[in-house]
Recover the amino acids of this structure.
């Protein structure tokens, strides 16, 4: 009698037939850090108000003025907090034969931003112009303001609009921008579990020594909806394919 010896590796993950739909996929519920939920749009430079009025009625006018140096100061702003999620955030990662489940209740984070503040003072010279576009509109620079005047040609009544207020011919413009930002995060109550899984058509069963979930795979919306039946029956979150 011939004795045939056979050996079997305890880790035959690579030789296990891969599920054609689930193996190598990741499914998520909630929002994760790499989903860019903490992205902050850059702060745009502030420009003087009503600049369109000068462009419209005084296209060829360059106001006589002297622009001073741009001064800068840096300020560090720190934000701390927590971002909880309703029912937690979670993900399922399928290998050839196992499903790795990860969940947490949110994150705690610290964001440090360096804000650069700018200021520039411009000194204007007393002057006045009549619009080449509309002769009933004029501009005057005084120590208190740059003002637009509109005259009614029939009544002679004059209306005024303050384009820019001045302080003894001076106007200081301020703006700011974020020059650097860094965010650190840590998970709140993270949990990890490993399930074996089986798929029969659109039914997906996850199980381990403590739990059993029965799920439905929707290949139109690419979602996975589960109900836990062991140890007790309860609805689980619906996962979406990443």
């Amino acid at each position: 009698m011939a004795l045939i010896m056979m050996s079997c590796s305890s880790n035959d993950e690579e030789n296990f037939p891969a599920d054609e739909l689930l193996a190598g996929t990741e499914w998520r519920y909630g929002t994760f850090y790499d989903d860019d939920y903490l992205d902050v749009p850059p702060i745009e430079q502030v420009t003087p108000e009503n600049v369109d009025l000068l462009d419209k009625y005084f296209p060829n006018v360059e106001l006589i003025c002297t622009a001073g140096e741009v001064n800068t100061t840096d300020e560090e702003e720190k934000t701390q907090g927590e971002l909880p999620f309703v029912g937690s955030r979670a993900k399922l990662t399928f290998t050839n034969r196992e499903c790795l489940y990860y969940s947490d209740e949110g994150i705690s984070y610290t964001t440090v931003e360096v804000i650069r503040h700018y200021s520039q003072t411009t000194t204007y010279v007393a002057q006045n112009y009549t619009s080449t576009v509309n002769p009933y509109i004029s501009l005057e620079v005084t120590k208190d303001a740059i003002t637009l005047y509109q005259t009614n040609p029939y009544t002679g009544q004059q209306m005024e609009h303050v384009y820019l207020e001045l302080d003894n011919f001076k106007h200081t413009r301020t703006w700011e921008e974020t020059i650097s930002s860094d965010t650190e995060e840590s998970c709140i109550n993270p949990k990890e579990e490993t399930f074996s899984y089986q798929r029969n058509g659109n039914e997906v069963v996850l199980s381990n020594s403590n739990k059993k979930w029965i799920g439905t795979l929707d290949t139109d919306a690419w979602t996975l909806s589960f109900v836990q039946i062991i140890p007790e029956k309860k609805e689980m979150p619906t996962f979406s394919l990443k």
In short: The radius of gyration is 34 Å. Confidence is low (pLDDT under 50) at residues 1-11, 36-50. The first helix runs from residue 51 to 57.
